[in-house]
Design a protein that fits this description.
With 224 residues, the protein is an alpha/beta fold. Helix content is 35%, strand content 23%.
Length: 224
Amino acid sequence: MLDPEQSHHLRDVLRLEMGEQVILSDNSGYDYTARIMSLDGPVICRIEGRARGASEMCVAVTVYQAVIKGDHFDYAVQKMVETGAAAIVPYLAQRCVRRPKNPEKFVERAQRIALEAAKQCERSVTPPVGPICDFSEVLEQIRNGFTIFAYEREDRRTLRSLLSAGCPERAALIVGPEGGFAPEETEALLEAGAHAVSLGPRILRSETAAPYVLAQIDYACCTE
């Protein structure tokens, strides 16, 4: 039996009918083949099969995305989910223009967007959106791990050259705000062991950087 929101989506948005086959997920990494048995009230489905989901990236990437203004953060979350992020952590950098007055509502909205994006692109897992943290907390969380940060002033190391030495099973990706990283933040990231990479000759917007990197990691590490 599906919950009211899921029932509404299948019956009133997708307009599926009795007997149709659907793919369901319980956020465990598995997909379930099911058939619609009732559309009256809560939708009832009969499970017919179970298989490990094939939609997840082979590298589990946690994206630390600086909070950005307007609806740009919403867009970034949507596209990060579509391009394979395993988790999303919003954080506050020195040059963040936007600082949410209600952090809880900000995260709740981002999580709803992540859920809708995961449904749309048929992810087996909905990436969690963590609570907003400070830059100092980001530094603590990335220590001893494989970390990439997109840096517009890096002119030697590209993401391709970094990954040519081998792909990790897990990675962190750090994206700065509209104004980029402050010099002391760049220095702190390097001291924490993060790898600065160039994203090419064009300066990307903050909301574009993470999906761009995720797509490259997917291609370099997960495409046979």
